[in-house]
């Protein structure tokens, strides 16, 4: 990179300027944004599958309508983020191919199965709760199109979290069996939700540069701690027990202390060994193939009408 251009770029980022698609940017800035934004988009799209599994089995029409609205939002978030990533010169096909050939990731959390209806509550409450912690700071990420996409997405994310928490409140105030289902869902989703924030800061190859270039505004561990501090009181309000015997409020630190995370499990799931990872990728490849006719029809319609417009 040209040292003067780089100095100007770093001064702009340090002054909290937004970098726009036509601005000069270091190739590594562009590359790491394509990496993060496309994987963020993949997470939104793959994230529709665990909840879709329960759409036809929702316990009431209103629960079904709420879940349908949420899943529809996630699709929109994914498409929004693919469009924002395309401003960096990457095509939709390239991003989808990377997902399908395994070279691009999606969030580990979506490789865990949804075994019953309480999981839908735990996902809204914990997974979307973690997503909010991680996405609110991204509204001030230095890349303009990404920051603006986040503003819209964060508004919808808070509805996702609230409906999940409210679903859990219903379950804990229901029959003993429903209460037990809510506790079991918390037991299975607590640790994978903490892993959503990524590896510890000292094991994160991207954090130092992403913080310097203000792609990230907080580190993985800071956001994880914020999530634990905000969520433990919610679990107490629900009368549920967080599955961590070492969890306790540390007055000095002003934060909760919690047990070490099983990073072996995290890296195994990142490698694609999660419980339902195969099913998720098969479902996405099938959806892409089944949707080919729609893309072809839209493209031929566009060609036909574009020539009519020129004529
Ligand atoms: N799942 C899968 N891969 C993960 C991961 C996770 N939970 N956490 C980290 N990784 C990967 C990173 O992608 C990186 O691999 P790569 O270089 O091949 O991309 C590697 O592990 C090292 O992690 P780093 O901390 O160095 O990587 P980042 O600086 O990119 O930090 C991140 C990871 C915090 C997830 C960051 O990428 C980020 O903030 N992304 C945007 C938000 C996002 O994608 N959230 C995922 C959930 S979206 C969601 O939940 C939707 C909601 O509606 C339900």
TrEMBL record:
Keywords: Oxidoreductase. Its EC number is 1.14.13.149. InterPro entries: Aromatic_CoA_ox/epox, Ferritin-like, Ferritin-like_SF, PaaA, PaaA_PaaC. The keyword Oxidoreductase applies. One of its GO terms (molecular function) is phenylacetyl-CoA 1,2-epoxidase activity. It comes from the Bacteria. This is 1,2-phenylacetyl-CoA epoxidase subunit A.
């Amino acid at each position: 990179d040209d040292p003067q251009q780089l100095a100007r770029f770093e001064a702009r980022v340090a002054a909290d300027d937004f970098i726009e698609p036509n601005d000069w940017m270091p190739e590594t800035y562009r590359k790491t944004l394509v990496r993060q934004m496309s994987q963020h988009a993949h997470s939104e799209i793959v994230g529709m599958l665990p909840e879709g599994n329960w759409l036809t089995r929702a316990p009431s029409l209103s629960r079904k309508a709420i879940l349908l609205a949420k899943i529809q939002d996630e699709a929109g978030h994914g498409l929004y983020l693919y469009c924002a990533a395309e401003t960096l010169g990457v095509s939709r096909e390239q991003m989808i191919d990377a997902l399908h050939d395994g070279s691009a990731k999606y969030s580990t959390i979506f490789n865990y199965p949804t075994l019953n209806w309480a999981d839908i509550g735990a996902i809204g409450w914990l997974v979307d709760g973690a997503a909010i912690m991680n996405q609110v700071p991204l509204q001030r990420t230095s890349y303009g199109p990404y920051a603006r996409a986040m503003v819209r997405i964060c508004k919808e994310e808070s509805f996702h979290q609230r409906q999940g928490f409210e679903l859990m409140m219903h379950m804990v105030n229901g029959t003993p069996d429903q209460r037990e289902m809510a506790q079991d869902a918390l037991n299975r989703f607590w640790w994978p939700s903490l892993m959503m924030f990524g590896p510890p800061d000292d094991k994160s190859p991207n954090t130092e540069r992403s913080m310097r270039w203000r792609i990230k505004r907080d580190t993985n561990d800071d956001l994880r701690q914020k999530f634990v501090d905000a969520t433990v009181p919610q679990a107490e309000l629900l009368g549920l027990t967080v599955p961590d015997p070492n969890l306790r409020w540390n007055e000095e630190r002003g934060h909760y202390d919690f047990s070490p995370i099983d990073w072996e499990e995290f890296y195994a799931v990142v490698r694609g060994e999660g419980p339902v990872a195969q099913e998720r990728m098969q479902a996405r490849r099938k959806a892409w193939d089944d949707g080919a006719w729609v893309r072809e029809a839209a493209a031929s319609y566009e060609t036909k009408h574009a020539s009519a417009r020129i004529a």
